[in-house]
Amino acid sequence: MAIREILRMGNPILLKEAEKVEKFDTPEIHELIKDMIETMKDAEGAGLAAPQVGESIQLVVFGVDKNERYPEAEKVPFTVLINPIITPLTQDKEDDWEGCLSVPGMRGVVPRFKVINYKGFDQYGNEIDRDVEGFHARVVQHECDHLFGILYPTRIENMKLFGFHDEIFVE
Ligand code: NI
User: What is each CA distance from 28 to 41, 101, 145, in whole angstroms?
Assistant: First the structure.
């Protein structure tokens, strides 16, 4: 296991569409997932997408137990999600603050669908099919955006609601 370097906004790998995973349950994928989990925990992130560690494949990990970066957030089950497909279940969106390990120190308000279905596979090729809402839905939409070369700042509608965490959330 190893903590990997997290690429930052500006790196071209973060702007590419990631390739679908063709083979599940391989030593390579297990190794990458272990590294991603270790890297995410080390950085206290709620999720991490493979392109953020330089692997342009459709794989994300996410999960929130108790996270200091999101003290108000509800729990999200720890999940490895491969080749995901997201379908909004209603057209309702809600605004909330987001951050990203590839955009360190910054926060922005991003509209996301409130209720979604997501489908995909775990690392063994087992199907995942969940209807979720709220923070869980937000995390999945944020992480899966990484697989299509989208970073959250490009989804911010009001740029006045974008800035450095320490300036915005003053005690
Ligand atoms: Ni991110």
Answer: 20, 23, 23
Flag residues of the chain having pLDDT under 70: 66-73, 171
Rounded distance from Cα 44 to ligand 1 centre (Å)? 12
Domain 12-168's class? Answer: alpha beta
User: CB-side exposure of 163: number of CA atoms within 13 Å?
Assistant: 8
**How does pLDDT run across 120-169, given as a tens digit for each residue?**
999 999 999 999 999 999 999 999 999 999 999 999 999 999 999 999 99
Ligand 1 centroid–CA 124 distance in Å is 24
Active centre residues (catalytic): 143
| Residue spans per domain, the chain | 12-168
What mean pLDDT is reported for the chain? 95
CA of 78 to the centre of ligand 1 (A): 16
